[in-house]
Amino acid sequence: MRILLTGGAGFIGSALVRQLIDHSEHEVLNFDKLTYAGTLTTVEKVSSSNRYRFVQGDICDGAAVRAAIEEFRPEIITHLAAESHVDRSIDGPDAFIQTNIVGTFQMLTEARRYWQTLEGAAKEAFRFHHISTDEVFGSLGDTGFFTEETPYDPRSPYSASKASSDHLVSAWGHTFGLPVLITNCSNNYGPYHFPEKLVPLMIVKALAGETLPVYGKGDQVRDWLFVEDHARALQTVFEKGQIGRTYNIGGNNEKQNVEVVNTVCSILDRLRPRADGQSYATQIGYVADRPGHDKRYAIDASRIRDELGWSPAETFDSGIEKTVGWYLANESWWRPIVEKSGADQRRGLAA
Questions:
Q1: In sequence order, what E strands does 47-176 have?
Q2: What domains appear along the chain, each with residue ranges and CATH number?
Q3: Beta strands at 284-287 and 212-215: parallel, antiparallel or unpaired
Q4: Phi, psi (5° rounding) for residue 35?
């Protein structure tokens, strides 16, 4: 199939590009604006494939989206392009409204326009797959899980913008008959993660000998999903998912943030010990919490397991070991990004 993938130079998008080129016969058009968090180095190893091509473009630019769709004539549109960092959404919500809401509206408009020109089997086969987050559901207490029926209760500008985009996609399915799919995932981690996010940030700061900033008490709980498992899940959904269905994707790995940081430290202690023999955990420091920080997320991923046969291959222990090892082996990838963008600087204290 021909897959038009938005945001394919970002963290999750690039993992899906690599998955499709390495493990399928699908053709891929990577449509990406190349913002601060997007770099083509994430897909460099598959860029020479004759099944891969790249177009630089903005999802908010309807004409650019239309041109890419009409030239490539996709059977699947997988929409991953988004502003995604909660802290940045606190400092500057406008970019999140534009990209995540207006951009999704433009994608839906052009997808519908194209879909209406199709006939027969081509029209039947077409899918618009929107990739979203578990943060749209708000915060859980000490027990329970997010299911596909959990009411939306977003708490940050980021999650509110993603909730809005989910509702737009669902509405285009109900009102216009556009064949849509939605997936909501838990916290991703793995190779090529932009170094402002928790796991790579801790690695970068640990190696620099800096304080490892843990928000509040570090007792916030997240379900951790290895990004390559997520990419497999996305392929499974657009290949086999039921039109109009939402699928939650989780890693079955609930961890407190401070536990994640301590695990990263213990792996670094073993793979690249400090010169003074002390543990990297001695660098942990507790800092002011993020405004409105959700306490706990946890995904019930039984629907995608039972209906589509997907389950994560990586445990948290195996996935985090691979992740830390990758960052140690690929310092030439992340260090220029940190130096250029200030990705290791604290954001999100505007409130």
A1: 52-56, 76-79, 127-133
A2: 2-194+226-251+295-314 (3.40.50.720)
A3: parallel
A4: -75, -170
Concerning whether 75 is annotated as a catalytic residue, the answer is: no
- Between vectors from CA 87 to CA 136 and to CA 55, what angle results, nearest 5°? 80
pLDDT in tens, 283-326: 999 999 888 889 999 999 999 999 999 999 999 999 999 999 99
Three-class DSSP category at 43 = helix
Please write the tens of the pLDDT for every residue from 55-75: 999 999 999 999 999 999 999
Q: Which of 58, 87, 110, 134 is catalytic?
A: 134
Identify whether the C-beta of residue 177 lies closer than 8 Å to the C-beta of residue 169.
no
CB 198 within 8 A of CB 220: no
- Residue written as token pair 């509040």: 216
Question: Does the annotation count 142 as an active-site position?
Answer: no
d(CA 100, CA 166): 10
Q: Which residues of 186-204 are buried (b: 16+ CB within 10 A; e: fewer)?
A: bbbbbbbbbbbbbbbbbbb
Q: Distance between terminal CA atoms of the chain?
A: 46
3-state secondary structure of 92: coil
Active site residue 254: no
The single residue of 32, 110, 135, 254 carrying the catalytic annotation is: 135
pTM for the predicted model, two decimal places:
0.96
Marked catalytic residue, from 52, 114, 158, 192: 158
